[in-house]
Amino acid sequence: MSASLACIGGTAAYDLLRDGALVADRLGPQHTPFGDSQPIYLCKSRFGQQFLFLSRHGETGYDLAPSFVNYRANLYALKDLGVRSVISWSETKALCHNYKVGEYVIVHDLVDETHQRAHTFFENQGLGAVRQWPVFCPSLRRALATTLGEERCAFSDHGVYVCVEGPRRETPAEARKYAMCGGELLGMTLAPEAFLARELQLCYSSICYVAHYAETGSDYTPFEGGRVLEEAITAQRARTAVERLPRILERLGHVVSDTPSLCHCETSMQQYIDSGQLAWDWRTWFEDQPSERDIGTALP
Ligand SMILES: [Zn+2]
Question: I need a labelling partner for 136 at 20 to 30 A (CA). Which of 160, 204, 213, 228 fits?
Answer without folding.
Answer: 213
